[in-house]
User: Fold these one by one.
Assistant:
Number 1:
Amino acid sequence: MNTGEVVDRLYGELDITKKDTKGYLKAMFEIWVEQLESERSFTIPGLGTFDTHTRESHVSYNPYYQSYMQIPPKRVANFKASQDLKSLIEGESADEG
Amino acid sequence: MKDKLTYDQLTELIAGELELSNRFTRKFIKQLVRVIRQGLVEDGKVNLSNLGIFETKEVEAREGRDPKTGEPITIPAHKKVVFKPYKKVRERINQPYIELEAEFVDSTETEAEPESEQQTETTAPSPSSFSPSGESTTENTSSSSKRSIRSESAKRLQSPGSPGFEWLKQHKSLIIRIAGLTTLIAAVGYSGYKWLKEE
């Protein structure tokens, strides 16, 4: 499912125009990313928690160069699905198998 | 993570920024979450532009241990949700370290891994103290003159404004192999020549 389809399913439910929905989504995600940039975590109910952490510098083997390399520190985003999203996804797989 | 934003704080922030009512913002997020959940169940994948991709992923069954009792248990195969931010977002989050690149380390040094781990622990927290010029690696090897010469040359290779050296650095292993092969061919050729002369 892409953004277009998400917008299509959203705007009817909210009684706003398609264009507004797109604009709100973009602006809201911008705020989400800004929070992650300034190392603030937040939780969206029903979805999960967004967080960042710093991967420390370490030595690792690069199979392409066949050599050990010093990997620099890196700050990465982390997403942890909420319990009810987990059970929704797992419940679905349990039905299949 | 320094701060944790409560959901109230987040919705107030979004409502303020988008000039919407708090109530509508909550409704908007609630509906968005509902659609994302639908998408995950139907397609197993939701692409959100300017943010990233939510995807369900199959996890194979594996052996694990009960964290309480320590007894071995089998964790059954299941699905999980993963989120991958788009490259632009990843780059923005990694802004403090974006200039740093991985660099080659002498394989002789890596045998002393605990040492290098210690070194990373001290350098990791602040981005400014991580030296991209490889100076920290020279300190460790100063005991052996042979090694310090190697890291000296490595340092010279890393000096800025020399794209040729950059290329050499990247193809280090290839160059070493070609050099070894050439030596071998020369040796075989020379002994063959000697043998023919004797005949």
Number 2:
Amino acid sequence: MNLTQRDWLFTVTGGLLVCLVLLPLVAMLFDLLRLGLPVLGWEFLLTAPSNAGRSGGIAPLLISTGWILLVCLSVAVPVGLGCAVFLNEWLLPESRLSRGIGLSLDVLSGVPSIIFGLFGYQVFAITLGLGFSILSGGLALACMVLPFIVRTSQQSLAAVPAGYRQAAQALSLSQTGMLWRVVLPTASPGIAAGVVLATGRALGETAVLIFTAGYVLRQPDSVLDSGRALAVHIYDLATNVTGGTSHGAATALVLLALILIATTSVRSGAGLWSRYMLEEKR
Amino acid sequence: MRDQVLRLITGLAALVAGLLLLLILAELVRASWPALTGLPVKAWLFSGHWAPGDGQFGLGAMLASSLAVSVLALAIAAPAGILIGAWLHLSAPAWIAVPLRALQGVMAGIPSVVYGFWGLITLVPLVNQWAPPGAVLITAVLVLALMILPLSVLVTDAALHQVPARSLQAARALALSRWGTFRQVMWPTVRGSIASGVVLQFGRALGETLAVLMVAGNVIRWPGSLTEPVRTITANIALEMGYASGLHSQVLFLSGLILLLLVMACMLLVRGGLRG
Amino acid sequence: MSLTSPSTFSASAEVLPAHDQVVQSRAPVVSIDQVSVFYGDQCAIQRASLTVQPGQLMALVGPSGCGKTSLLHSINRLTDSVAGCRVTGETRVGELAVNAPATSLRELRTRIGMVFQQPNPFPLSVADNIRFPLKEHGLRNKQALNQRVEQNLRAVGLWDEVKDRLQQSALSLSGGQQQRLCLARALAMEPEVLLLDEPCSALDPVATETIEQLIRSLKGHYTVLMVTHNLAQARRIADAVTVCWVDEGCGCVVETGSREAIFVNSSNPVTRAYCSGEKG
């Protein structure tokens, strides 16, 4: 076999493989649309489910999902960003503490979600007495997404030009002022990318939530109520409810659309904030 | 003054983030302690007999199933991912490579429950035609491989980006074939990153819960054939934690602890390998 | 919390007088005595001694790697935040002992302004680049702030060029304009000493010419230490010159003296070889 033939083989094999991989993806989209589209509509989004989800809509689940995500991000973002700032602004990268925290976070980012489910159940639901609640679920999710937020924030903080810091030192500026006016706005697009990643994961997560936020289909009255997230709903419809397939497919479509919307909106929000902070202050 | 306050607050955040892993580990050990000390190792690690009602807590078969499913899924996804990654770099025209990369990113972001759902409604009936009941080991392997593939492609792609442009230029100047370029020039440089990527994906596969649970059939038995249902360790936790109590619940925590230690070993292997 | 009370910033709204006018007496003597800088085991410069008279411009010249920049960074203690960096010896700015434990970093750095090799304005608006540091140091009065912006932009000859786009990002300015903005930012803090770390090396010849003019006009008002690679530049604008060299892997001061003493009358073989272009 000469060179050209081998190259040709490589190109063709690769191309065929790509087609082979794209096939299930196309099939997945097709199946979801085929089953889900007939159900999907405003009514589906705005009404409560009935008959265990076989009919009706997903309105309370949207609300539960939103609350869980809100709890998750409002804990994970400040803690993660704080940790990144501490690692970046006060610790030398080679120091033992910095390396230890880094290693711990790296390992944490690979811990399976079901472990966070077990941990959240044991600590938040049982020990802290929060029960099966949106708060428990959101906190457990926050633990899961924390390493992603720290890592991406840290990378974007480190990417802020060293010249800014040198100038700030020579001018004897406070770290707080520098952080707020220059460093964070400059780094915010990168930080937002981490939050986007976290949002996507949190929205699609199921195993963490089954034993923390729980199963209850009703609309939650407070964060101490149990609430079922969209992803959990899909799981439940697929495995525990016969005849729930089309509603499951419709829910999956909504979930995919939400992930898409959430990720784009977080990104543009950060862009706006960055521009606002770096512009003229009166 | 303001700086001191900020330092304190962010330091606290760093402390929480840094200790979370240890806290999780400690909590799993604490919750599984009675089982860990009360049951002989032989009874939970090596036995395949799981009947919580009768006091039988053998995790062996489920552990073996977890490993089998993960290894097989990786055996499909890793080579395919590496090949596609190389193909993207060397053969694909830009109008295919650019959207395909983006698509891999999107695929990596699809929640596992959606993969599981699709596997259940499409793949299970399909497999059922030649291997009833359809929800069997090979189905789980296929779904898992599909989930992991984009990660494998993305890791390979990122690694190949690090090959110095001058090496590629030299290869082009010597008129090496595409395959030759990949094999001789790129592979030696990226081998390490790809290997750590594979280990990471193994950890990911081992910990996957929902997608596998939905399509694997969940019958507890030692994995012997591709066409028989199995139950993984993660699926077992998800299925039984809801009603477990006492020793049953403690053994479930123990199985979580084993899983955590396996995944931690993977991560530490990668970290050690990267440094070495 | 603010060591520099707002009253320090009382309006001395006068534009800087041209340099042949009365020399301000605020500029202190800077004396460096047996200063060494180490990075871990690596020695950057060893036992350097030199003195800069009030209001004079001292040029530090020498080949790369001879520790000029490290020496400069030790004067306002930027070396503090470099991991593993150690400074020995004694540096005095006026009556202030730089390396004494009791010396406040904040006081030291407000008395010493610095301009770096790469222009490094903050990614803020042109005006905020000057306002933000002043606010940080306790100047809150809006009118005073705006006055300070105009005064210092005029001092560096930038006012007419940017007065209509004070609200635009400083990053939209040209390299030379950015460097002048950085100088204005340093001057706004009303320092007594200026450290210039190869301020022209990243600029084109025209911008370099402008900055040189500007530096010339600063003489007399500030005690200036300038690191430069450019011997001709040192010859043009320096009052005094220090020649650094690398000796056994470590930087050192070969000779220090007035411009004439170095460029015309030096008897030191290294200085003569370097200044004539035979070495370095």
